[in-house]
């Protein structure tokens, strides 16, 4: 049989002593957790291991002896280490020794109480105890009563190391009778700054939770459910983003402990995303208020709006003539052109009426950047929607008129074929029409058919303008979604400490010689960057747009409206 010994690489330079760990009989494997140095009292070691088993629920015992011949020169040491097997009574008794400065290791198995001792092939596997402990490849620690002891999986090794966390809290500087060597034997890994932040975060989180509960109570009040406020809250992307960030703040400030690694990583990703978002927003705010850039922006906004209005007027004048040599219905063309020109005149008057207050509005809007860059981008998207509201109105008018004619032509076409649409059964049924109905239907079909090119041209032009605005707003929302959903903490962790985001393990051969145990190095395989983004990506409130290309083309052909806003039913959980 093959006996596998998992030995921590941090103990390779430890002083001579005994090996403590867990024996997994189903796998015929030994997981070494630490080395107990000389001198020690066996009774105290047994008491310590019994208390450790009670706390960790892991059957930790003395598995063998460890000899470092570079530091120990007594000839009787090897005999003494063999005699320890009779005191601790473990079968098999593992003896590992390091031969001075040589890279070779000797590992032997003693079976004193076995009647038929068998020669076993030994595989010595080195593992980084710190990386295995922090890799989270083990089952969740909160399912200790429900976990199944599956001996055929490597997760038992990781589970053993993870559940022995109490053992690693004892370092060599503790005043106790037992001296250990493990991955934290030089001192428990911690940070004074982190500990101080943990202590200060408790009252800060309590205060933040109180403020957020009050704010969320105001947001859920009945006042905001009335029609004007509820309509604005559902349509303005700024309100949606503020609500989204409010949920994030409530999540990271809650005193509820994360149940698993995914919830912990989600909280960390949200916290880092908020910090970076606010930092970028403050940088944007400092740039806007430096050198009077707000005033320059306000002075530029009115001429740009006038220029856009003039271009639209020129476009309508072109459509009211003979656009591209096309023969239009002159009466309908003049009515539609004058109707849209009047709307442009109203829009110019509205812009000039607001011109004295634009700088003050932009000054207060710029202060919102301290809430984050995403809030500032959402405000920019809403400003674009307000400044292009006349284009949206033109698009709605053209789409409704075009849609009316398309559905009218399709209904009259069914009349010619002796069919009609059954509203109750939602299908097309046969129907007999008299002569008067066919005559009226022919007249209406002819009128709608000859007026369709003029209507379709206006609809096409304003649809292209509307799509241009939608694309600009879509790019802004994509940037907002990127900041909201990108797991920045996980990506930084993947770059600096890749073993914290483990996808599996791999083994590398270190030594393979006859008469020597096979030495392997167990390494952690990290997740790829794409896997990190896919696994820990944060949910966002918007998806812009959701329609496929086929659905979008169908809507454009039938004249259905393209809404730039996300509806509440589209929210991702």
UniProtKB/TrEMBL annotation:
<feature type="transmembrane region" description="Helical">
    <location>
        <begin position="200"/>
        <end position="219"/>
    </location>
</feature>
<dbReference type="GO" id="GO:0016740">
    <property type="term" value="F:transferase activity"/>
</dbReference>
<dbReference type="GO" id="GO:0006506">
    <property type="term" value="P:GPI anchor biosynthetic process"/>
</dbReference>
<feature type="transmembrane region" description="Helical">
    <location>
        <begin position="467"/>
        <end position="492"/>
    </location>
</feature>
<feature type="transmembrane region" description="Helical">
    <location>
        <begin position="335"/>
        <end position="354"/>
    </location>
</feature>
<keyword id="KW-0808">Transferase</keyword>
<dbReference type="GO" id="GO:0016020">
    <property type="term" value="C:membrane"/>
</dbReference>
<feature type="transmembrane region" description="Helical">
    <location>
        <begin position="437"/>
        <end position="461"/>
    </location>
</feature>
<keyword id="KW-1133">Transmembrane helix</keyword>
<protein>
    <submittedName>
        <fullName>PIGQ acetylglucosaminyltransferase</fullName>
    </submittedName>
</protein>
<dbReference type="InterPro" id="IPR007720">
    <property type="entry name" value="PigQ/GPI1"/>
</dbReference>
<keyword id="KW-0472">Membrane</keyword>
<feature type="transmembrane region" description="Helical">
    <location>
        <begin position="270"/>
        <end position="289"/>
    </location>
</feature>
<feature type="transmembrane region" description="Helical">
    <location>
        <begin position="394"/>
        <end position="416"/>
    </location>
</feature>
<dbReference type="GO" id="GO:0005783">
    <property type="term" value="C:endoplasmic reticulum"/>
</dbReference>
<keyword id="KW-0812">Transmembrane</keyword>
<dbReference type="Pfam" id="PF05024">
    <property type="entry name" value="Gpi1"/>
</dbReference>
<feature type="transmembrane region" description="Helical">
    <location>
        <begin position="361"/>
        <end position="388"/>
    </location>
</feature>
